[in-house]
Design brief:
Blueprint lengths: L1 E7 L7 E7 L6 E10 L2 H7 L8 E2 L4 E8 L11 E4 L8 H4 L9 H6 L10 E3 L2 E2 L12 E5 L3 E3 L17 H13 L6 E5 L3 H12 L4 E6 L2 H10 L3 E4 L5 H8 L4 E6 L4 H9 L1 E9 L10 H5 L5 E4 L7 H13 L9 E5 L3 H9 L5 E5 L1
Parallel strand pairs: 11-12, 11-14, 12-13, 14-15, 15-16, 17-18
Antiparallel strand pairs: 1-2, 1-4, 2-7, 3-5, 3-9, 3-18, 5-6, 6-10, 7-8
Helix pairs in contact: 4-5, 5-6
């Protein structure tokens, strides 16, 4: 079928709305009519050519309605409202142990370009287009594997257009706290970077009943939002010495820290402020990091973990986030600014410039 997609035809190039050909779903796949999709920093990385072969259709926070299901699909049926999340094989050791974000085939399935079976569903001028996160949701219709799909609970009284970001960015932040760190009530946590991932981590920490939630950013408006969402202490990092400030507030060190920035200097601070046996989780896209293994880690039994997708099982955790929202404990809608699909380039520009926390484009 003919569909409209936002195609990136080369590194750092704008999105071009083009008519492409979409194949019908195979037995394990589902045809989705997209309603809306979130914009994320990982889309920026894809646009810059850092993740996936081009030409590519990006987008990985889709929400839509099931149009058609393959013969082997049993979890959804036509007419169901769904959220699209990341791809995982469902068969490797990590998937079977309940950690699909650690899937042994994660990078192949989410970034390499083909579908599960090594073929493509999207084509332009008889050439294949790379798939992104198994969904490529910057498009009017897409075909996804059943693993990518989370059915929206029937009692979820939430606008479907707002739900896409739950499938990636908001899942990453809140899940890193609630699924991986699992802080005990009364614990202390520091979170670096108040983009959507960091802000969702703040909400997760509040749900977990952390006693002190320290947050750091360079943008006062984002810090104000963090305060509104549950942070107990907010700091503009350019105005303070982060390590000295935390030591003064919590002399023994903080229990947990979470970095969303990927900045090596920030990450070292996130480690240095930990108490002995504390743990830092890194979720940001970054580069090289130089540590002294003895003084930074071993001497005080500190731990550092890299994590993707908030260690979430999407089909389990996304409905939990929706429930938290309905209970008034996960106000993710405050982060969202809606754009028309035709204005995707403007949405991306505003996101890069810090003018929109979490853009969502409606098809």
């Amino acid at each position: 079928m003919k569909v409209t997609a936002a195609v990136v035809n080369g590194e750092k190039r704008d999105f071009e709305l083009e008519e492409i050909e979409l194949d019908a779903p195979k037995d394990n796949e589902v045809l989705i009519k997209l309603v809306a999709t979130g914009v994320c920093h990982t889309d920026v990385a894809g646009q810059d050519g850092l993740t996936t072969p081009m030409p590519v259709v990006l987008g990985h926070e889709g929400a839509g309605i099931v149009e058609q299901v393959g013969a082997a699909v049993s979890s959804v049926q036509p007419g169901d409202k769904v959220i699209l999340s990341f791809s995982y094989c469902g068969k490797c050791r990590n998937c079977l142990e309940g950690h699909p974000g650690m899937c042994e085939k994660f990078n192949d399935l989410n970034f390499a370009g083909p579908n599960f079976d090594g073929t493509h569903r999207m084509h332009k001028d008889r050439h294949d287009l790379s798939l992104f996160f198994g969904q490529s949701s910057f498009v009017t219709y897409t075909v996804v594997d059943e693993h990518n799909i989370v059915k929206v609970p029937d009692d979820a009284d939430v606008d479907l257009a707002y739900l896409g970001p739950l499938g990636y960015g908001l899942q990453t932040g809140s899940g890193s706290v609630l699924n991986y760190l699992k802080p005990e009530p009364g614990a202390t946590i520091a979170i670096f970077g108040m983009g959507p991932v960091g802000l969702s981590a703040v909400m997760g920490a509040k749900i977990a009943e952390a006693s002190r939630i320290l947050v750091f950013d360079l943008n006062d408006q984002r810090l104000a939002m963090a305060k509104e969402l549950g942070a107990t202490d907010v700091f503009n990092s350019k105005d303070i010495d982060v390590e000295a400030t935390v030591k003064e507030l919590i002399p023994g060190g903080i229990d947990y820290s979470l970095d969303t920035t990927g900045n090596g200097f920030v990450i070292k601070s996130a480690i240095h402020i930990l108490r002995p046996a504390g743990e830092a989780v890194l979720v940001g896209i970054g580069g090289d990091l130089k540590l002294n293994m003895m003084t930074d880690l071993v001497a005080e039994s500190k731990k550092v973990a890299g994590l993707v997708e908030g260690d979430a099982i999407p089909q389990k955790f996304i409905p939990e986030m929706i429930k938290y929202y309905q209970e008034g404990r996960f106000a993710f809608d405050k982060l969202i600014k809606v754009y028309d699909f035709k204005d995707l380039n403007q949405a991306m520009d505003d996101f890069k410039a810090g003018k929109a926390l979490k853009p969502v484009v409606k098809m």
